[in-house]
Amino acid sequence: MSDKPEKFIDENGLRLDGRQVDEMRPMKMELGVISRADGSCYLEWGKNKVMAAVYGPRELHPRRMQKADSVLIRYRYNMAAFSVEDRIRPGPNRRSIEISKVSREAFEPVVLTHLYPGAVIDVFAEVLQADAGTRTAAINAASMALADAGIPMKGLVAACAVGKVDGQLVLDLNKAEDNFGDADFPMTFTQDGEVSLVQMDGNFTQEEFKQAVEMCKEGCQKILGMQQEALRNKFAGELSTDEVDVELIEEDVVEAESDDVDEGAAEPEEVDEDVEESQDDVEDHSMIKADEPEFEEDEPEDEPESEEDEPEEETA
Amino acid sequence: MSNEVMSALKKDYIYNLILKGERSDGRAFDEFRDIELRTNVIEKAEGSAWLKLGKTEVLVGVKLQVGKPFPDSADQGVIITSLELNPIASPDFEAGPPRENAIEMARVADRGIRESGAIDLTKLCITEGEEVWMVFIDVHVLNNYGNIQDAASLGAIAALMTATIPAEREGKGEDSPLPIRDMPLAVTLVNIGGSMLVDPGLDEEAVCGTRITIVSNQDGSISGMQKSGDGALTEEQLLSAVEMACKKASQIREANLLNI
Amino acid sequence: MECNIVIPGQFLSDDAGKSGHGTYVKDGKVYSLLYGIMNAKNKMSVIPFSSKYIPSRKDFVVGTVINVTPSNWIFDIGSPYDGLLHVSEYPRRVDSDKMSGIMGISDSALLRVKDVSSSMKVELSMRERGLRALKTGRILEVSPAKVPRVIGHGGSMVSMLKKETNCEIFVGQNGRIWIDGTDGNMDRLAEAVEMIMEHSHSSGLTDRVCRFLRNVSDDDSENDENTQKGDFAEDEEDECKVHGDACRTVDALLDAEDE
Fold first, then answer.
1. Closest to B122 measured CA to CA, from B114, B113, B112, B132
2. Chain B residues touching C106 at Cβ < 8 A
3. Which domains does chain B have, with CATH numbers?
4. Among A124, A153, B159, C229, which one is most buried in terms of CB atoms within 10 A?
5. Is B51 in contact with B58 (CB distance < 8 Å)?
6. Hey, are the CB atoms on B8 and C139 less than 8 Å from each other?
7. Domain that holds residue C184
């Protein structure tokens, strides 16, 4: 085990790894890397290497775990035995169970759970190499894996941690800062600025705390930008080779309902009745059940717990 | 539907293809899928290998720790191989402690490495009877597209071949490469409709009744074997499987392991 | 036409009235719920790149039996929700102990969704001409969101596929397509469907796939192809003309709109 460094910040204001106090480690991500999963993302953040995958919505067993009116979200944070310097025994431990719980709770406010009652969305986050900030790295990867899987969400979720060393607040702790610093404060921000995960370990004054929140928020906003870019870039190459006819897609959605879906089998007559169905019903294609409330209604929001004074106009 | 049931129509389709001498992905019966191998991918591990066999993906990490030897082999290091069928890798894998499939695959991989003598365990002795190096081989499955066994075996030996003994970290002298003196490789075949197929894909695993894994070494000798599944093989099938396995292992060795 | 890739939480419009499928409204503004392609034709809606099949009443589906109980067959229909076929929804009277004999675990069938309750209990039916248990053929799997592409405008794509490959085709809304014909023709059809999946965003796809099927046929055996064409010209001319023309007209209209 390494020893505590004498100083964390040098005379030029740079950290041990050369970063500024509000500078994050480099991050890169790749989508769709696990073909068996419905959505997946491989993410590197500094020396952290995490793999996130989403399966779902899918059937949930045993039945007693099913929720009658919403989907169950399960989140499993797991570290590979070889991911850290001192090998860890495979399997869940108290730390990973706690992290799994708060991470799941970070996503619950943004996923539209009422759309898939009785089913489950499984999120798996595997840490392949750890270097401080694995839980936040995992959440950033999981956020993209959920989008990749087509899970309906109000927005993406970004996570980052702030710490304190030599009396100075620092963004995105490295290993030494995490082990020997005076605070570890991870947070997640949703796209509309709400906080869906907060943990703190250490010591802050009230003033430091407010600054830390600001610092973290800025970090999360940058991460959000990177997530969005990665999602956009996944198909950029592919789609540009063919003429993209977006018009055609909606045409097809409309037409399918009014057509004889299977030429060779069913009575054409029976299906023709569907032609009379209203345009609105037809647009509610199989992806979203017709009985479900349309998304037009304002989502009833809980009182936001954000630290900033953001006016939330509730018109419900 | 917690575990996907393969439709009888699909089983028939695969079966009939094989009767015609074809496989659903167009491979020959004795052809392995493409292999992509990268080593030294996890710095924190003493050795590592990221392996893709077709779309099956595994990450193998090698970690070394100082520990106590077993009483009946006081001057020998210890090898411990684990394999987890992680739920991230397939809709059919469940979270929880390893069950019989994962355990079987780990033990087969382990025996293959141990019995081949690829690692000279006496070289891992620090102080006889007190301290030896324990070599942990952990196979982390990332995507299951069939034949995790062979992927795990290839990944393991590649990770071992590029591993370092972390002597400095443990205060036992200078770092040195882990001494590996053979390259045992598992090759798995399945029996479908009387034909033996090498490197079963996901669909083929679901259809087959019998699987046979043979671990062979550089000199063509055999250091491990395991039949699994509820079917049976004829003596002839067994002998030809062994011959095929040695041949394929040597091809894979040449293509992937000689330069790492 | 630029590709409009959108991501969850992305702002789409100031006009709450334009909120369509795959979007939500907050503070009078419309945002995307999904990672996919935005369509701003009438309302703003988003078609996801990846989606699960959620059953709706009247959907046709291809299912596989995963369990048989004394009064129901339980089908996997490629959805988070299994479908139940009650024995009374089978076209003939069946005794409880005979059920497995008719359809056992891993057997597949063509079915229709009779009803979906609010708690997502899915009831299936086979009481319609054309629906039945399957003994031959193959089941192709495609993304449920792209099923309309396989059907095409006025069924144009699926009729063209039938004509060019001489196969029976049943397109399930759940992304499963049952096909039956000679092995060679089923292979060609499977390739054509893959092509549709790959180029699902393109226009003029029906003609493109048609040409592909005819080219492949040419390579194999010209004699067969000519014979086939002759036969079809007589029997199915009317049927194909209606669909073919309709599809070409619609395609042309759409192409014109693009320019």
1. B132
2. 5-8, 11
3. 10-257 (3.30.230.70)
4. B159
5. yes
6. no
7. 138-258
How many angstroms separate the Cα of A90 from the Cα of each of A57, A295, B85, B142, B166?
Answer: 27, 43, 12, 15, 21
β-pair type (C11-13, B222-228) = unpaired
Could you tell me which of C121, C98, C10, C113 has the C-alpha nearest to residue C62? Answer: C113
> Could you tell me if C2 lies within 8 Å of chain A, comparing CB atoms?
yes
pTM of the model: 0.85
If you average pLDDT over residues C164-175, what whole number do you get? 95
- Residue B38's DSSP bridge partners are B50
Distance of alpha carbon A261 from alpha carbon C151, whole angstroms: 7
Instruction: Name the CATH topology of A27-239.
Output: Ribosomal Protein S5; domain 2 (3.30.230)
CA dihedral over A301, A302, A307, A308, signed as positive or negative: positive
Interface contact flag, A231 C54, Cβ < 8 Å: no
Whether a cis peptide bond, with omega within 30° of 0, leads into A57 is: yes
Q: Residue A31 corresponds to which amino acid?
A: L
Residue pair C84/C122 in contact (Cβ under 8 Å)? The answer is: yes
Same domain, C169 and C250: yes
Interface test with B, best of C138, C168, C174 (most B CBs within 10 A): C138
Inter-residue contact C34 to C74 (CB < 8 Å): no
Instruction: Specify the domain boundaries for CATH 3.30.230.70 within chain A.
Output: 27-239
Q: Do residues C104 and C65 lie in contact, with contact meaning Cβ atoms separated by under 8 Å?
A: yes
| Domains identified in chain C, total number | 3
Section B63-82 average pLDDT: 96
Name the nearest CA neighbour of A139 among A23, A233, A220.
Answer: A220
Residue C220 included in any domain: yes
| ipTM for the whole predicted complex goes beyond 0.90 | yes
Instruction: Match 């054309």 to its residue by tokens.
Output: C130
Taking a C-beta distance cutoff of 8 angstroms, is the pair A199, A185 a contact? yes
Structure tokens at B253: 């060795």
Instruction: Please provide the DSSP assignment of C133-168 as one string.
Output: EE-SSEEEE--GGGHHHHH-GGGHHHHHHHHHHT-E
**Res. A187: pLDDT tops 70:** yes
Residues 6+ apart with CB under 8 A from B50: B37, B38, B39, B41, B57, B58, B59, B155
B222: its two tokens: 């055999």
